[in-house]
């Protein structure tokens, strides 16, 4: 696997950024996961989905909660913008398993890293056909902290 080139951006508001970090911390050392949906104006809804795997190295979205969230996104006319999960002990970069399980090529995959508990990092990626392309994550128009690369 090669390092990703950075192309494009994903913009988060401060509240969403803080909520993703808080969710990642809420169940550490286990990975957490969820969805972000929007309406063309940015993130409109954040769905915390339980990690059915309850693992420190893997996530599997609980099927009923994911179905409920996807139905809500559809019913409200929103678009699925991002799928996120946390890495509690490693950098914010897709693992081989993350790449293998990237079934939604039109969404951004966000990874929240707690590798440095005092300096959490969120990085975003497009994953298509096994190819990783990084997006710059911006919070309120400012580049988000990137951590080690």
Give the helix/strand layout.
Blueprint lengths: L4 E8 L1 H13 L6 E6 L4 E7 L13 H13 L3 E9 L8 H5 L7 E6 L7 E8 L2 E9 L2 E2 L6
Parallel strand pairs: 1-7, 4-5
Antiparallel strand pairs: 2-3, 2-4, 5-6, 6-7, 7-8
Description:
The protein has 149 residues and is of the alpha+beta class. It has a single domain, classed as 3-Layer(aba) Sandwich (Cytidine Deaminase, domain 2). The chain is built from three helices and eight strands; from the N terminus they run E-H-E-E-H-E-H-E-E-E-E. It has helices at 14-26, 63-75, 96-100; strands at residues 5-12, 33-38, 43-49, 79-87, 108-113, 121-128, 131-139, 142-143. Strands 1, 2, 3, 4, 5, 6, 7 and 8 form an eight-stranded mixed β-sheet that branches. Strand 7 and strand 8 form a beta hairpin. The longest helix is centred in the first third of the chain and has 13 residues, at 14-26. The radius of gyration is 14 Å and the shape is globular. Residues 1-6 have low confidence and may be disordered.
Structural class: alpha+beta
CATH architecture grouping: 3-Layer(aba) Sandwich
The largest pleated sheet is described as: 8 strands, mixed
Question: Roughly how many Å is the radius of gyration?
Answer: 14 Å
Strand content: 35-45%
- Domain count, please report it: 1
Q: Give the C-level CATH assignment.
A: Alpha Beta
The oligomeric state is single chain
> What is the mean predicted local confidence, pLDDT?
92
Q: According to CATH, what is the topology?
A: Cytidine Deaminase, domain 2
User: How many beta-strand runs?
Assistant: 8
Shape: globular
Number of helices: 3
> Helical amount among residues, as a percent range?
10-25%
């Amino acid at each position: 696997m090669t390092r990703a080139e950075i192309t494009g951006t994903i913009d988060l508001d401060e509240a969403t950024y803080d909520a993703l970090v808080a969710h990642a911390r809420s169940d550490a050392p286990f990975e957490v996961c969820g969805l972000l949906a929007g309406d063309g104006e940015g993130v409109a809804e954040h769905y915390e989905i339980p990690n059915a795997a309850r693992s420190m190295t893997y996530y599997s979205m609980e099927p009923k909660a994911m179905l409920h969230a996807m139905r809500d996104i559809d019913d409200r006319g929103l678009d699925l913008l991002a799928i996120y999960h946390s890495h509690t002990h490693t950098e914010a970069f897709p693992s081989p398993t993350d790449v293998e399980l990237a079934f939604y090529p039109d969404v951004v995959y966000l990874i929240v890293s707690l590798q440095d508990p005092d300096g959490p990092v969120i990085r975003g990626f497009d994953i298509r056909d096994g190819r990783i392309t990084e997006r710059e994550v911006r919070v309120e128009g400012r580049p988000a902290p990137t951590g080690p690369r």
